[in-house]
Amino acid sequence: MRREGAPIGGLAGRDGGPLLAWYRRNARDLPWRRTRDPYAIWVSEVMLQQTRVEAVVPRYLRWMERFPNVLSLARASEDEALALWQGLGYYRRCRRLLQGARWILENGLPECAAEWRAVPGVGEYTAAAIASIALGEAVPVVDGNVERVFARLTGCRESGAELKRQAWKWAARNLFARDPGAWNQALMELGATVCTPRKPSCDGCPLAARCVAKQSWTVEELPVGRSRTPVRHLRHVVWVPVAAGKVALRRIPPGQWWEGLWEFPRVDATEDPEAAERELAALLPGAWPERLGGFRHVVTHHKITVEAWLVRLDEPRALDGLQWFGWEEVARLALPTPQRKVLRLAREGIG
Ligand code: SF4
After folding, report:
1. Percent with pLDDT over 70 in the chain
2. Are 146 and 191 in contact (CB under 8 A)?
3. Domain(s) of CATH 3.90.79.10: residues in the chain
4. How much is the pLDDT for 279?
5. Could you give the angle at the alpha carbon of 241 between the alpha carbons of 238 and 246, nearest 5°?
6. Could you tell me if residue 140 is left (phi over 0), alpha (psi between -120 and 50 degrees) or otherwise beta?
7. What is the pLDDT of residue 1?
8. CA-to-CA distance for 154 and 166, rounded, in angstroms?
9. Is the pLDDT assigned to residue 8 strictly greater than 80?
10. Please, are residues 232 and 302 in contact by the beta-carbon 8 Å criterion?
11. Domain with CATH 1.10.340.30 in the chain
């Protein structure tokens, strides 16, 4: 009997086997699958990290229209790139893309996975994805989807770093070297659309006949150790100072969520419900806020209840750490998604 986690070998066969045939029939038609431009593949891979495909598609198209190549991105300002990244979250990815483009402008476009690894912000996964999909290099790619497919297909009961290590070895052994780009995408697509974390569609799976987990009724158990990070509930209070057709915002300092973007003054009142009032009194003594509304926002294991308040002033006077902008100027700034919602509430509130 085969050991748990042992290689199943020869998954691709001579022609890519049932997996590649399935992929050719069922691959989703996504804009980055219509190109072999390494820059375009790179952009799509970075955008897809921790973000749903549906959210990425319109932003990818907008990005490629404004920054169609490395040169156009390398010459952009960080503010411009961040403004275009709005809605994707995890803004550090945008800065890394920009740094990477500037590095490529100086050092030349990488021509293989090893060279892509030298680009700032490009890790093993991204380098392998670009090299196999755009350049046809025979290197395996393992993301969370491939790890899950590997664990179930082979019955591997490892978790964490050991699961990852075995998945990379397995992916290298089973790579279809004649078309590594399509093969890697087929494995990832299977994990994303069929071998999903919950309720996988085993009946429609091209690999069902070779799947240890399916045959041993352990699909729901694998991969093991899938611990869910508990969700934390936060309460943020946001003030919108307005005066003479202008609003005041601050640049978010380094080390905070959304650093480098712009926001209306925001107070974390989760632990201390009166913190917001105290800060407002210190910033704007005697101010009389009007409630604009509230909403929930979810970001990396946090559910934030946001309350927005309008603070009307007679004139745009100097406020500690804040800058005044006209409404049209604010629309061009990079604001995190919850702050953009606050901006909308403020515009509606003022009428
Ligand atoms: S048969 Fe089910 S568990 Fe096995 S690889 Fe296919 S979808 Fe995943």
Report:
1. 97
2. yes
3. 232-350
4. 85
5. 130
6. beta
7. 36
8. 11
9. no
10. yes
11. 17-221
Pair of tokens at residue 159: 């978790």
pLDDT at 6 over 60: no
Is 45 annotated as catalytic? yes
Report the range of poorest mean pLDDT among 227-231, 292-296, 344-348. 227-231
Strands (E), the chain: 232-243, 246-251, 262-263, 266-268, 290-299, 302-312, 323-326
- Report how far residue 12's alpha carbon sits from residue 228's, in angstroms, rounded to the nearest whole number: 33
* Contacting residues for 106 by C-beta, under 8 A, at least 6 apart: none
| 130 Cβ below 6 A of ligand 1 | no
- Which tokens go with 86? 């709005």
- Alpha carbons 346 and 340: distance in angstroms, whole number: 10
Residue 9 CA to ligand 1 centre (angstroms) = 16
Mean predicted lDDT score pLDDT of the chain: 92
pLDDT at 3 over 80: no
**Beta bridge mates, 304:** 234, 297
Question: Annotated catalytic residue: which of 4, 45, 259, 315?
Answer: 45
Give the DSSP letter of residue 198.
Answer: S
**Torsion angles phi and psi, residue 310, rounded to 5:** -100, 135
Please state, as a whole number, how many other Cβ atoms lie within 10 Å of the Cβ of residue 111. 12
Beta bridge mates, 238: 266, 308
What is the distance in A from the centroid of ligand 1 to the CA of 172? 20
Supply the CATH classification number for the domain 232-350.
3.90.79.10
Q: Which residues pair with 323 in a beta bridge?
A: 249
Largest CA distance in the chain: 81
Instruction: Give the mean pLDDT of 74-89.
Output: 93
pLDDT at 299 over 90: no
- Residue with CA closest to ligand 1 atom 8: 195
Atom of ligand 1 nearest to the CA of 149: 5
d(Cα 197, Cα 126) in Å, to the nearest integer?
A: 22
Q: Does domain 17-221 fall into CATH 1.10.340.30?
A: yes
Q: Name the band, by pLDDT with cuts 50, 70 and 90, for residue 87.
A: confident
CA distance 190 to 205: 8
